[in-house]
Write a structure and sequence with these properties.
By secondary structure, the protein is an alpha/beta fold. The protein folds into two domains: 10-24 and 271-390, Aspartate Aminotransferase, domain 1 (Alpha-Beta Complex); 31-269, Type I PLP-dependent aspartate aminotransferase-like (Major domain) (Aspartate Aminotransferase, domain 2, 3-Layer(aba) Sandwich), CATH 3.40.640. Helix content is 35%, strand content 13%. The strands form three sheets. A seven-stranded mixed sheet has the order 1-9-8-5-4-2-3, with helices on both faces. Strands 7-6-11 form a three-stranded antiparallel sheet, with no helix packed on it. A three-stranded antiparallel sheet has the order 10-12-13. It is globular. The structure holds pyridoxal-5'-phosphate.
Length: 393
Amino acid sequence: MINTSNSALAINGGIPVTREPVLIHKPFLEEDDFIAVDRAVRSTFVSGDGPDCREFERMLAEYLGARHVLFVNSATAALELAFRARNFPAGSEVIVPDFTYTSTALGALYNNLKIVLADVYADNGSIDTSKIERLITSRTVAIAPVDYAGIPADMDAINDIARRYGLYVVHDTAQSIGSLYKGRKTGILADISTFSFHGTKNMTTGEGGAVVTDDDALASRIRVLREKGTDKHSFLTDNRTRGFYEYIDTGNSYVQSNILGALGVSQLKKIDLMNGIRKDIAARYIDGLKEISGLDLLRIPEWAQPNWHIFGILVPPGNRYWVMDALRAEGIMANVHYSPLHLNRYYSHLATDDAMPGSMEFFSRLLRLPLYPSLTHDEQEKVIAAVKKVFGT
Ligand SMILES: Cc1ncc(COP(=O)(O)O)c(C=O)c1O
C-alpha cells in the first residue's frame, strides 16, 4: 500500500536509494559506431543517399523481409511521405489513436487531411480495434495504428477492417524495430510502415527514420518526394551520362547524410543483441516487481513479442505524479511520456463526446522506468528497490 507520508522516503526527507541518478534512456553507442562514423566522414561522401545509406537500406530490407526501405531524416518525415505518396483529396479522414506522439497526426495534417481520433486500450495504449469501425465515414481513407512501447497493434484485425472498407494502412512502427506480431516483424504488416531512429529509440542514427513498403509504386514516388522532387536517385543508380537530373515533381529534402547511413549500418548489426539485453532487463523487472499491490504492467497480448522499447508501469491514477516525484527523489528518473492528443492545445478541437475513456485511464496511470542496454545490474536493482520502497512493499 502506498503511504505518502512514510518518512523513510526521500521525497519526505529520507535517504534516497541512489544519489547517482538512474537516467530514463541512453543510446547504446560503442567503438564500432564511432569507427563507422569516422570512416564515413573520412570517405568525404557526407551528403545524402550515399553508399552507406544504400547499404543500410539494403540491410534493413533484408532484416525485415521487405521489398523497399527508404532512409529519411525522421519518422515524422516518413509519415508525411507515406500520406503524400497517395495524393488523397484534402479533407479526407485518417483514423489515429488518441494516445500517440503528435507525428502520427502531423503526417496526415501536412497533407491537408483530417484527423479522427480513436480510443486505445486502457491497459496498454494500443488502438482499440473494437472502436475503429464506428469512426469510418465516406471520407475515411486511412488508419494509422501505432506500436506503443514496442507492443504491436493488432494488425490482422486492423488490416481486415481496412480491406473491407478499402482503406490505406500507415503503420507507425516508430517504436517497434525488432518486435514480432504473430511471429512476423513489424514493418511488413501494412501498406506502409514508418520507423524512427531518434536517439531514444532501440537503434539510433541520432535523428532518422525509414519508410518501408512492398509497394513498388509507393516506393518510387517517395524516392522522388524525399529528394526535392527530382529523379536524382535513379540518376545516381543508373549512372546515366547526361550529367544532370530532372525535376519531375515537388518534394522536400528528406534524404539522410551518408554519415548517418554508416551509423545505421553499425547499429542495425547489433539490433538483436540490444533488444535481447532489453528483454533480459524487462524480465528482471517483471520478476522484481511482481505482486506489488496497486502496480500493474502493460498488457502484452499472447501474439506479441515486444522489443521492450519502453518499460511502463500502471500505478493508481490519483497517485501517478506523486509516485513519479517519489521515484525521482529516490534517484530514479521515471517519467510520463505522451499525453492524449485531445488534451493538447492544438488538438483540443478533436475531443469527442465519449471523452476517450481508455486513453484517459491509460494516461492517468502510466509511468516509464529506465530501460536501455547499458543499464547496469546495480542500476536495475536500484530501480526495483525504489519502486518497492515507494509502494511500501
Ligand atoms: C509513435 C511515434 N511516432 C512518431 C515519432 C516521431 O519520430 P521522429 O522523432 O523520428 O520524427 C515518435 C517519436 O518518439 C513516436 O514515438
